[in-house]
Amino acid sequence: MPARQLASQTVPATGGNVVSTDKVGAASGVAGLGSDGKVPAAQISVPRITVGVTAPTSPVTGDVWIDTN
Questions:
Q1: Arithmetic mean of pLDDT, 38-56
Q2: SS3 10
Q3: Contact 50, 65 (CB under 8 A)
Q4: In sequence order, what are the residues at sequence separation of 6 or more whose Cβ sits closer than 8 angstroms to the Cβ of residue 23?
Q5: Rounded distance, CA 1 to CA 26, Å?
Q6: What is the DSSP string of 33-63?
Q7: Which pLDDT belongs to residue 3?
Q8: N or C, where is the chain less crowded by C-beta within 10 Å?
Q9: What is the pTM (predicted TM-score) of this model?
Q10: Which residues fall within 8 angstroms of residue 22, CB to CB, at 6 or more apart?
Q11: Looking at residue 9, what is its pLDDT?
Q12: Does residue 39 contact residue 33 with C-beta atoms inside 8 Å?
């Protein structure tokens, strides 16, 4: 799909596929891109990895548990 430039009056107030600039790089927003075209490491969450026979007491989405039992 070719890139398109939108005129300011055509940008929808809500919905669509437009992201407000205040959401780029913000918590609960979308990742931005660095000058190299990649997502900066600071904007990538690192999962906690737990190895053992006992499940973590307070896991969060994205955490990894490896059962060694």
A1: 83
A2: helix
A3: yes
A4: 29, 30
A5: 27
A6: --TTSS--GGGS----EEEESS--SS--TT-
A7: 64
A8: N
A9: 0.43
A10: 29
A11: 56
A12: yes
